[in-house]
């Protein structure tokens, strides 16, 4: 789970800021205030980490198929009137659950941190000026020197272990094989920390505010998709897989039942069902409500728009981080409020972290009520209000007491 996000000179966040993140973190604020930029920092790291080019320092986008965003050039990311020609991104995290050394080589890294400062190349791309990774009590740093060479440091050692262009970081978070070899025994620890950081970033799933309208029927390819897409376009593939070929894994086989349960709690449907069309290989999603069966295409738009939100909560692996923008879109007030219950319960039951950007006062108020009723603990959720002060974004912590009241 991400515990802290640090930004400086990143888009609207010109001043240095540290944002504490909880299992459920909600960001409210006006349009164009800087809320989405917070998420974009993490998504920029993710599209860099999954880039096929391991030598890239920061993937600013351009591939419409594989990238979340096209950030343009360095100057488009850099805050205006920044005090230096660099921007910084960093985070701290911890792993949920017990250590399982059989799980991965990085299983011992239960707490870690990443930080990088980026400068600009002559081609207006981003290049790492300084990078640090740490896990437990071990720290590694790379510092860019003249002509693209990097000095490699371990801990607080005043002198670098070595300096070379071959020590340039890979995908922002990893040491090159040459740097690992230079560090000897410490190099193995650095590899494990980089892998733990990579796994943390890869655990992010993003669902944007613009979701695709449903089709009348679908063909199932017989497999469970790897993700549902940033527009929820593959959500029906997940539901088809859950209904037609239930996996043994609890998180997969019970997806359609869990989705039906929450749609019922929201009052938008009694349940949903996958139904085969005759003897064909095509299927439709049927929505049951008040004794009436209807194709998903023929019901209110709110059902299809919230369907990816609810499905995602049960589709992602335990321990994942879900980033949601405007999950409440096209929902009536009661359903918006129930979204808070979904986030709190799934976070507690499946150790899912939710980072949510919303304009819904109903979602916000229900969360206050849940804290007051001790259904949600105030230490497990965090509320922020983002506002604009001139060209800069400003973050206000809306601190809740044990009665769900906002402190003054």
UniProtKB/TrEMBL annotation:
Residues annotated as domain ATPase AAA-type core: 258-363
Gene3D superfamilies from the UniProt entry: P-loop containing nucleotide triphosphate hydrolases
Descriptive protein name: DUF3696 domain-containing protein
Domain Endonuclease GajA/Old nuclease/RecF-like AAA: 5-99
Pfam families for the chain: AAA_15, AAA_21
PANTHER family to which the protein is assigned, alphabetical: ATP/GTP PHOSPHATASE, EXCINUCLEASE ATPASE SUBUNIT
């Amino acid at each position: 789970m991400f515990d802290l996000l640090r930004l400086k000179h990143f888009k609207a966040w010109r001043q240095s800021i540290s944002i504490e993140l909880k299992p459920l973190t909600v960001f409210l604020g006006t349009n164009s205030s800087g809320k989405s930029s917070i998420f974009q920092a993490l998504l920029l790291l993710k599209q860099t980490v999954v880039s096929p080019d391991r030598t890239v320092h920061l993937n600013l986008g351009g591939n419409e198929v594989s990238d979340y965003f096209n950030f343009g050039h360095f100057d488009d990311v850099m805050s205006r009137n920044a005090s230096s020609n660099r921007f910084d991104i960093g985070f701290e995290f911890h792993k949920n659950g017990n250590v399982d050394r059989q799980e991965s080589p990085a299983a011992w890294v239960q707490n870690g941190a990443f930080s990088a400062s980026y400068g600009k190349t002559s081609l207006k791309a981003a290049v790492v000026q300084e990078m640090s990774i740490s896990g437990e009590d071990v720290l590694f740093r790379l510092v860019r020197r003249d002509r693209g060479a990097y000095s490699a440091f371990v801990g607080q050692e005043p002198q670098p272990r070595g300096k070379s262009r071959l020590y340039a970081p890979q995908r922002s978070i990893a040491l090159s094989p040459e740097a690992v070899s230079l560090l000897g025994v410490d190099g193995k620890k650095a590899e494990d920390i980089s892998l733990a950081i990579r796994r943390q970033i890869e655990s992010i799933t993003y669902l944007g505010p613009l979701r695709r309208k449903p089709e009348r029927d679908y063909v199932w390819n017989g497999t469970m998709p790897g993700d549902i897409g940033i527009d929820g376009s593959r959500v029906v593939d997940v539901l088809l897989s859950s209904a037609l070929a239930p996996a043994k894994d609890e998180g997969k086989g019970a997806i359609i039942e869990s989705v039906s349960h929450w749609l019922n709690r929201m009052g938008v449907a009694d349940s949903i069902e996958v139904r085969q069309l005759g003897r064909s290989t095509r299927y439709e999603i049927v929505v049951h409500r008040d004794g009436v069966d209807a194709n998903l295409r023929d019901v209110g738009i709110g059902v299809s728009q919230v369907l990816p939100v609810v499905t995602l909560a049960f589709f992602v692996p335990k321990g994942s981080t879900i980033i949601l923008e405007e999950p409440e879109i096209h929902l009536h007030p009661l359903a918006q409020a129930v979204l808070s219950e979904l986030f709190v319960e799934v976070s507690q039951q499946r150790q899912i972290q939710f980072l949510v950007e919303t304009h819904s006062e109903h979602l916000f108020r229900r969360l206050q009520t849940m804290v007051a009723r001790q259904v949600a603990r105030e230490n497990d959720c965090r509320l922020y209000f983002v506002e604009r002060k001139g060209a800069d974004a400003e973050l206000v912590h809306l601190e809740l007491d044990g009665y769900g009241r906002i402190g003054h």
